[in-house]
Amino acid sequence: MNWNLAAFTAAYGLSAQLPACSAPEIAFAGRSNVGKSTLINKLFNRKNLARVSSVPGKTATINFYRCGGVDFVDLPGYGFAKTGRSELRRWTELINGYLQQERDIRAVLLLIDMRHPPTKNDLQMVDFLIDTEMPFAVVLTKADKLNRAEREARLAALPDELPQYEDLTVIPFSAVTGEGVDALRTLAEEITV
């Protein structure tokens, strides 16, 4: 897969608008401001393919990017409290509607901020993915923001924080250092062959 040839293809604000699946898909899920758009830009060697904002909740649609015959799907962030209730309901419907459709989802990459324990919403998403037997990997974002001792402490705590940790693929990621990019690309290529 030529990672430099990714292109934005479409955005949808309601699950009813989603077209039928036409390619293998890899979805990016996580709380608002966890770094989904930043990870997508790093994965594809682009600065502005996915819009990045310091304001949580900027991605309010499901955004599709195509690369090498695979659709990479950026889901809206969950758990952003400063958004109105109707907008939160729309986002929830959008995420659930996408995940519950008949689609060729090869994996969900669940992004969790490595600096903190998983949130209640993160754990609900992990439980949902386990219960629906949807393949997923946990991507620990912002790894560069921890010193060595903090990083080791967070990694040591994860087996007690995440259900079925021993069965999970966990990839630390940093947009600053590039840590985890090769592992994510390899994973994507292996599951979409």
Word description of this protein:
- The protein is of the alpha/beta class and 193 residues long.
- It has one domain (3-191): 3-Layer(aba) Sandwich (Rossmann fold), CATH 3.40.50.
- Helices cover 32% and strands 22% of the residues.
- The chain has five helices and seven strands.
- The protein has helices spanning 36-43, 85-100, 120-131, 148-161, 181-191; strands at 7-12, 25-30, 62-67, 70-74, 105-113, 136-141, 169-172.
- The chain has a seven-stranded mixed sheet with strand order 1-3-4-2-5-6-7, with helices on both faces.
- The termini are close together.
Give the full name of the CATH homologous superfamily. P-loop containing nucleotide triphosphate hydrolases
Query: Helix count?
Result: 5
| Quantity of strands, as a count | 7
Q: Any idea what the CATH architecture is?
A: 3-Layer(aba) Sandwich
Distance N terminus to C terminus?
A: 10 Å
- What is the total domain count? 1
Helix residue percentage: 25-40%
Q: Using only CA atoms, what is the Rg?
A: 16 Å
- Which stretches are low in confidence, meaning pLDDT under 50 for 5 or more residues running? none
Strand order of the largest sheet: 1-3-4-2-5-6-7
Which percent band covers the strand fraction? 15-25%
CATH class: Alpha Beta
Short description:
With 193 residues, this protein is an alpha/beta fold. It is 32% helix and 22% strand. It has one domain (3-191): 3-Layer(aba) Sandwich (Rossmann fold).
